[in-house]
C-alpha cells in the first residue's frame, strides 16, 4: 500500500475519510446556548483555537493524548470512535468543525478564524505532503488547482462567504490568523469574553500555552495521530505518515512557489465570492474590516 502520487488518487481516497453515518451523527447534535463551535476553514487556525478555548475553560489542562479527544471534531467524532454527545471534561462544551454557517448545527456560539487563502492553501499542501500524498509527487500548481476545484460548498471561499455574512451576530466571533499572530494576548482576551471566561489566571495560562514554543514542545498532542489511526486504514493510507500542525504559520513564507497563474486564479475566485457580494476587494480588506472593530493592530 502506497500513498497517492496524483490528485485524482488523493481525491478518491479522501472521499472515504468521513462516513455519511458519522456526518449525520455529528449534525444531529443539538447545541446548548453556551456550546462553542470552533469552525475555521482547514489550516486557518483550528487547532490553535482548540488549544485556546480548552486552556481558557480548564485553566491550562494538558491531560489529553491529542486535542480532539477533549475538543472533538463534530463531523468526524463518530468515525474516530468518539461520541460528540457525551459529557466533556469542562464547560463550556467545545467542538472543532470545518463546516460553514449553512451546515453547522444552530443554537450555540461560533468562533471563526479567517486566513489569507494562498497561505492556507500552502499550509494544507505541506500538512498533507507525506501523509495524504508522497512527498514531492504532486506539484504546488496541481494542488492549487485542486484547492480551487473542490465541491463548491467545500471551498475556502464558500466557507468564508457563509461566515462573513453572519459576522454581525452576537453568537459569532470572527478573527484573523494574522492578527492572532500579531497580538495573541488580545485574541485570547476576546475569546475569553466571548465564551464567558473571566478568571484572570485562566486567561494568562491559556495565552502562554497557545504560544508557538509551548505548542511545539507538546507537538504530539496536536498532530492528528488519533485521526490517522482511525481513518487511514479506511482511506487506504499507509501508517507512519507525518502530520504536524504546529508551525510558525509565517505569512507569505513560500510565496516563491506561487506562480502568477495561481495568484490570478485565486484573485478571480475572491472577486466572484467576496468582492461582488460584500465589497471586499481582497483579503487585506477583510482583515482591515475586522481590525476596525477590535483592539488589534494592523
Estimate what percentage of residues fall within beta strands.
5-15%
Task: Going across the biggest sheet, name each strand in turn.
Answer: 2-1-3-4
Mind telling me the C-alpha Rg?
A: 18 Å
Specify the helix fraction band.
40-55%
CATH superfamily: P-loop containing nucleotide triphosphate hydrolases
Keywords: Transferase
Family: Belongs to the sulfotransferase 1 family.
Pfam family, one: Sulfotransfer_1
InterPro entries: P-loop_NTPase (IPR027417), Sulfotransferase_dom (IPR000863)
If you had to describe this structure to a student in words, what would you say it looks like?
This protein is mostly helical and 298 residues long. The protein is built from 13 helices and four strands. It has a four-stranded parallel beta sheet with strand order 2-1-3-4, sandwiched between helices. It is globular. The termini are far apart. The model has no long low-confidence stretch (mean pLDDT 93). Residues 33-228 form the Sulfotransferase domain. Belongs to the sulfotransferase 1 family. GO terms for molecular function: sulfotransferase activity.
